[in-house]
């Protein structure tokens, strides 16, 4: 079943595009601008189920005090589970705010409990997953920390086996297998870039920041479309998905390629791995920590594994394959030469829960003249 990326406030990548700093004694206020088509609701808590205590209009300036983890929201600026506390005391999702400054994390006070005597716990056994080094660049460095500036502890050659325990965010590395910011912590405490390792899915290391910094590319809509057209048209030729549909969905779901899934893993559609399986067009899996919330507003942390790709074109082709092989979308393929009917059928089959999803996609198709890229015309 397709999982729509809800957080990019995800660990190991995900995405607001801004760093959330540790809480300070007194966080500095940060100005921000609302980017919304209608109005943005201010709530009493960081959840869409919380009471509405006010509204904000498009382009309204607000003052952000600090940020907290809450319900994941896909907005006009980004997809994230970061909510911000305003100077008025209410909360809004960061998905609809633009701000170029760091937002401090809201301070929390842990309740104090009575001291109790407890038996010491036995030392935990370190479990690991065996990965294989794949390198056409020569020996791969294993370092003391997840950065290319850390001291080299040893080197390994192509084909070597390594024992991966968990994953952390570090320096971006372009390797033989993929380009990624993920580094794998090994059983001896050292680190190797995930860019050179084929391994079963690794979980996030305890203590990994919820919102690591992601460098958002500076790209115009015209540049994004130009880069995306070849992959979208190939997806049409191979699987029958209209290129205009693929382009519009990519724009909407990746925020013009600015989501951290697309920046880090070239995943423009939030397609998940199925266990450790990632199909023929992806090149691996990347585990992210996400924040899920119940309808009652109770939130909890879980993790999800998303596919990684070698290129934008691979992601676009996999999107076509995903729709083609899932029987629920079969009715759409009766309209492979009618883009609007195609995306209508996909939406009605349950591709997205947003009641305005069809309108948003077709508006992008018309506004940016994406129909011209449909290959049969």
UniProtKB/TrEMBL annotation:
GO terms for molecular function: amidase activity. Keywords: Hydrolase, Signal. Residues 31-101, 128-201 form the SH3b domain. Residues 214-374 form the Mannosyl-glycoprotein endo-beta-N-acetylglucosamidase-like domain. It comes from the Bacteria. Residues 1-27 form the signal peptide. It holds the Pfam family Glucosaminidase. This is Flagellar protein FlgJ.
